[in-house]
TrEMBL record:
Gene3D superfamilies: 3.40.47.10
Protein name listed in UniProt: Beta-ketoacyl synthase N-terminal-like domain-containing protein
One Pfam family this sequence matches: ketoacyl-synt
Domain Beta-ketoacyl synthase-like N-terminal, chain residue ranges per copy: 47-220
Naturally occurring in which organism (per UniProt): Flavobacterium artemisiae
InterPro entries assigned: Beta-ketoacyl_synthase, Ketoacyl_synth_N, Thiolase-like
Keywords, ordered alphabetically: Transferase
Domain of life (superkingdom): Bacteria
């Protein structure tokens, strides 16, 4: 008998105030910046200041988001910690590489290098929680988080673990951001207001953040939703997406009409907007459509923020006006489909139910 996978706790640190709040009631859409900055929690409540000073942004956000998720789920410890990240602790990577150039490859301190690896976040969380179990980090582009989620789901189903902490973490680094602007990944400066829907310009509005989830094999008071299925595909043509969605739903004995809301990864990049708008105008024309990257920005693990939002909607049955793409409403939101891709690659489909 395969076990089911439940989201029993969530924690989210993002470019919105997503801690000490009920949901997104304090969210604001910033249309004047093409790179959104994190809204920082009081780190000293979670991390000793002496340790905090030496930690990268992503590590601190990861530790706090993980602590929030664990507290939310009411668990003392977990059997495994699995994270996904696209760029890891990019700020420390930049510091180390800059130091190599500035110091002519001499007298280098290893600190930035040690803290620049992608698995620093999962390791620091394990140290904080004294968790000696399975600890793994997926670095897999825009499906880094989904890879972690799938790993956790498979372990829970096969009874290898009872509770797993899963998260997606990324941070912005100044130099990398500048490069992304040069190669067109981020929208050009001085083109505001940056609207993500019906955008006519290429590139995305970038962000950063850490979203963590406690996945367990049993339903509790704190349960948000059940993770039904996850599928990832590296390349799809625009005209293949709809058929893929239909077969993905069919594998779960569902049809388009069974989906109460679809969460799409609109990020304002006109070059790849068709992937979402095609679905929105055709297959899901009569479905509640939601989006989230105008709140959290685009980054490799932005989809973790989308999952956080979807899980909250199923639990609270409240759809914040700020997240709506169309005006279709439902009396109940019990089944939600998430679809994400980045620059035409790394497509992911995630299915949640009440």
């Amino acid at each position: 008998m395969t076990k089911k996978t439940y989201i029993n706790g969530v924690g989210c640190i993002s470019t919105q105030k997503t801690f000490d709040t009920v949901f997104l009631e304090e969210a604001v859409v910033n249309e004047n910046e093409n790179v959104l900055k994190i809204v920082s929690p009081a780190y000293k409540e979670y991390i000793a200041p002496a340790a905090s000073r030496r930690m990268a942004k992503g590590v601190k956000n990861g530790i706090v988001a993980a602590a929030l998720a664990v507290k939310d789920a009411g668990v003392e410890n977990v059997d495994a910690i699995i994270t996904g990240t696209g760029l890891g602790c990019i700020e420390d990577s930049e510091k180390f590489l800059t130091a190599i150039l500035d110091n002519d490859e001499q007298f280098l301190t290893p600190t930035s290098f040690i803290q620049s690896t992608h698995n620093t976040v999962a390791a620091q969380i394990a140290l904080t929680m004294q968790c000696k179990g399975y600890n793994f980090t997926y670095v897999n582009g825009a499906v880094s988080f989904e890879s972690a989620l799938l790993d956790a789901k498979m372990q829970i189903e096969d009874n290898e673990a009872n509770s797993i902490l899963v998260g997606g973490v990324d941070e912005n680094g100044d130099y990398t951001t500048a490069l992304f602007k040069l190669n067109g990944r981020i929208k050009q400066d001085n083109q505001e207001p940056y609207h993500l829907l019906n955008s006519a310009t290429n590139g995305a509005v970038y962000g950063e953040g850490a979203s963590f989830f406690v996945l367990e094999n049993e339903q509790k008071e704190s349960t948000y939703a059940q993770v039904l299925d996850i599928e990832m595909i590296n390349t799809l043509e625009v005209n293949e997406v709809e058929a893929k969605v239909i077969s993905f739903l069919k594998a779960n004995n569902l049809e388009i009409s069974d989906i109460d809301a679809v969460v799409l990864g609109f990020d304002g990049n006109a070059a790849f907007e068709k992937y979402y708008s095609n679905l929105a105008q055709n297959a899901f024309a009569n479905t509640t459509q939601l989006y989230y990257k105008h709140l959290c920005g685009e980054f490799d693990t932005a989809s973790a923020f989308g999952l956080w939002m979807a899980a909250k909607i199923i639990k609270t049955q409240d759809v914040p006006e700020i997240t709506r793409v169309n005006s279709v409403t439902k009396s109940e939101y019990n089944t939600i489909l998430l679809y994400n891709q980045l620059n035409g690659k790394n497509h992911s489909f995630t299915l949640l139910s009440k």
